[in-house]
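Hey L., structure's done. Input below.
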Amino acid sequence: MDQVYVSTLNREVQLAQPGEFAALRIGQMTIWPPVVLAPMAGVTNYPFRSVCKEFGAGLYVSEMINARPLVDGRDKTLKLADFGPDESPRSLQLYGSDPYYISEAVKRLVDEGRIDHLDMNFGCPVPKVTRKGGGAAIPLKPNLLRNIVGAAVKNARNVPVTIKFRLGINADYLTFLTAGRIAEDEGCAAVGLHARTAAQLYHGHADWNAIAELKQAVRIPVLGNGDIWEAQDALRMMRQTGCDGVIVGRGCLGRPWLFRDLADVFAGREPVDPPNFADVLEIMFAHARKLCDWFGERVAMRSFRRHASWYTKGFRMSSELRAGLMRVETVAQLEDLFRDVDRFQAFPPSAMRVVRGKATGVQKVALPNGFLNNLEDATPSPGADDDTGDGG
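Output:
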């Protein structure tokens, strides 16, 4: 009998064969399976990373940290940049548009022994970021990008640096090949490509052909990002593009066991059926408790509300219960909501590829006035580091 989880799209995907895929090498790190948890603002904090890591090996990157408040020593930023006592390797994503603040932030992270790997975000499509010339706007100015990346690599010393970017801001301004070559020139250990433009946000299908094009253009490892909803999607991407590893974002929201499935398919094993509702709830409650221990219950449970909606996606629940999820203030309230629910429900196959997290839709990318007039300019835009949003 077919396993519950298998979608029609992936029924015919052959599992990995012995020796078909190599471990991912980033500096001195060896990552197997070649899978990276995407940095997601407000999501990939230590509690979530630890939940995901319980299900499988790989590299688990922190949420995006802004360089300037890190340099200024702001308590909230320092907390976001913290790792758990058992985390190894410690992987952090840094955001910034000014080489000075990048230099100082990287010096601090390295001198204090905080990190084993540094990723940098040049793909954030959020309007409040691009409007000030940051995020996905930076690769439009290759000299500025080069200065930022060079500053990071120089001050990282033996810590490997990777950068993540999009295809470009839109179809008229595709910058991914230039960004990849700059990363290689400046000594980055690898690059990650979210194969959509900033204008696409998370709409439609990622362009895996562009990942293949980037792989042909550079001699450093290339990680593909976009549309990894099931474990077999990772195999399809690597076979189709020749990339060296995959970055998993929205597909693991409310489904951290995706990393177990990924470990299975790369080892040539059929993934087991996904957990039933009872097991999903236990995973969800454990995640909530970890978050409360890390941030305090009041702050944690408000941020956990969206996680609860992701965990329960597709299961049969009353509208009153779903509404209640958006009002929970304590773990006890969360657990009480599910006291009378049918816990023996199998995981709904229809929920496997349901979009979680960021909404779809397209946008016109906001840029500073005159930003496109001189793309050779290497001057950071004023105020670009004052406010950040979700990573791309």
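The first strand starts at residue 24 and ends at 26. The chain is about 35% helix and 15% strand.

-- N.
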